[in-house]
Amino acid sequence: MEESISENPNSKMTIYSNEKNININCERQLNDKILSEEKINQTTMKIEHIIKDIPLKPILNYNPDELRWNSTHTINLEHVYCYCAQDRTLDEPDFQCRVCKNFFHARCFRSPLKEVLPFLINYTLVCSLCSSTNTEEFHRSIASWKAICGCVIANLTSQKIISDHPEWTKDMISSKNHLELTRLEYFFTKKADIVPFLENPFNWKILCIDKEKASSWQSTLGNLLLSSKDTFRAQDEGNRSQNSPYSLIDTNLFQFRSMYTSGSHKLTLNTSRKRQNSIYHDENIHTKFLKNSSTISNSIENISSNIKKENLENKKDIKESRERKETWKKKESHTKKKDKVSDTNISNMSILPRIRPPPYRPSDFNSTPRLPTFIRVENNNINQDFYSLTDQPFNRKAFRYLPCEATPLMPNIMYRQIELPPYRARISWNDTSQHVFLDKDGMTATTDKGFRMARANVCMNEGDWYFEFIIERGNGDQGGFVRIGIARREASLDAPVGFDGYSYALRDKGGQKVHMSRPRDFMESFGTGDVIGFHVSFPKTTSKNSCILKSDIFRDRIPIRYKGQLYFEQLEYIPSKEMEDLMNPASNAVKSATLPSIIKNSFIKVYKNGKFMGTAFQDLYAFLPPNSQTIQAQDINDGMLGYYPAVSMYRGGIVRLNFGPLFKYPPKDIPLGSVVIPLFERYTEQIAEDIVWDLVDEIDLSFSSEIMDSLSAIRTKETTNSSEISEIKEIEDI
């Protein structure tokens, strides 16, 4: 080896060169490694700096997916909202996230909102839980005058509630008491209340973004109040004007959210018109509604599948007896289209959860039903005694009241409706304007105000009926006028009969027939001393062609106490936007409006002092769902849908009702008692129907308990999840 090296002198140089190259490469790699570590450190520092600037998502102490919301996603049964898990209150601004639909208090934002008012609706919010930046994305938009006015009246109402009840705590104005708060209604005028609120610079800045105080802005506001019948209610609908006192149609202020009044007072964000869960809450009732899980829904659908199949044929027959009229546009083009009942719609019908009443109180069994208090009205122009009624709840807006009592004979429904004397067909004590005066037998009505209405306590939904209106003062006699006819429950009690599409009337002056405030010539005038007979006919239904399907009757009524007396409180049917559009005189609105369904071959025939005057109305508007809906947009029939005899009086007009059996002028061309029935008989029919439905509800609630027990057992076998088991137990307690 040594010899070979000595023989080759260049070999040493080669080895040295290789060693040098290796050292250079090692040094380069070492430098590259140092540079890489420096870059990594710099990058890490930058990332750490960026992370420090990005806020973390808040951690909630509740599971939002377990909250049980009402159909409009504005109130949940747990009354837990926001990051703070606290309730919503009337005196604190909160906003709804457009993604998760939860509500968040303005004070809980990462950058708390200061220049805001409660009940704003012209905004969009993405909460920090839903935002990609982990912070709130809140943007205000330009508000319409309708949105501004709605927000103003809501704030005025909230302030009035708080000022009228200074002893109330914050908890008492929270969403868990929304039903009690909804009953409080206040009216405000443009000049005295709404304009001064907006004149406040702070309020104008918040509400009227990019709006200038033009000289006509107050007039614009007045015109909006006058025309927006879907959102604002006048205290006197019969004399609605710019200067009328107004309130919100839906007085549940917790419904306010983004774009709330963009369409109407109806909750248009929820496009489904199917039956949906609602939340009813009373401090003494603790009613509980749960979201329908897939297991419960499927089980109930399996149980009810046979009932749906049996009703399928009946639903198809209803289509024939409740035809839908064409729109004006279709009439002009002479094209006709028949409505078809979709089998899919029937199969997709959901079943509303039942409300279990509150437990009895010992005093419930000792209470004696009593009449309202009668306060005699002093009037020198009236020769008979009339009384105003107090110490009772009057039907109003979206609520209906019926006297009831506790009954241990039915342990599931626990309470039943009762009748108050006199026990006969008469004017309803509760279904009357507070400005109407009645006599003690409930048959005669008058008022000293503008037109006010009173409805009878019997409804007509099928068959032929006859009754009389006895005009004791009318057609200008001593300044009094009357309108007589029939009305549905949606018709306003503070307006005359025939004011809207929910009632049909005759006018004493000129004998005109009136519907949707449009008078048309019909008969000669009638006045003091005349007797007007009504023959009202709805096609008789059969079991095969029934318009009131037994499976469609749904009567959940919450017992409440009012001045020591028990009453049922239930949601009342309210006017629809479609019917309001028909009353709109604008030609475009009328042409685009779809006419409601009709009751084919129905009619109202009129007699004056026994003489036939003709057929005043025919093919009356249908009243069964979906033609009637509650404020919760529920397509339900409580068994008392139909048309009621109704009277409206003006400035001393007096009308007496006569339901038989003895009529002053019985018609000679129709056989009373066989084909045409005196309406007094409907009173006992209604009581019998109510008893039958009490029995059905008793069995239904008992059966529902057994179903829930079975579902609970199935759930227990399938899973050990404690939250699911507790949820089933809550259903059992309802």
Describe the 3D structure.
- Helix 3 packs across helix 5 (190-199) and helix 13 (681-718) packs antiparallel against helix 14 (722-733).
- The chain folds into 3 domains: 2-53; 60-271, DNA primase DNAg catalytic core, N-terminal domain, CATH 3.90.980.20; 362-694, Jelly Rolls.
- The protein is 28% helix and 19% strand.
- It is of the alpha+beta class and 734 residues long.
- It has 14 helices and 29 strands.
- Strands 12, 13, 15, 20, 24, 25, 28 and 29 form an 8-stranded mixed sheet that branches. The protein has a 7-stranded antiparallel sheet with strand order 11-14-27-16-17-18-19, with no helix packed on it.
- The model is unreliable at 1-6, 262-351, 543-551 and 714-734 (pLDDT under 50).
- The chain starts with a helix and ends with a helix.
The CATH class of the largest domain, by name, is Mainly Beta
Cα shape: elongated
Quaternary state, please?
Answer: single chain
Poorly predicted segments: 1-6, 262-351, 543-551, 714-734
- Total of domains: 3
Query: Which CATH architecture of the largest domain would you pick?
Result: Sandwich
Secondary structure tally, helices: 14
For the largest beta-sheet, the strand count, sense and barrel status come to: 8 strands, mixed
CATH topology of the largest domain: Jelly Rolls
The total beta strand count reads: 29
Instruction: Return the structural class.
Output: alpha+beta
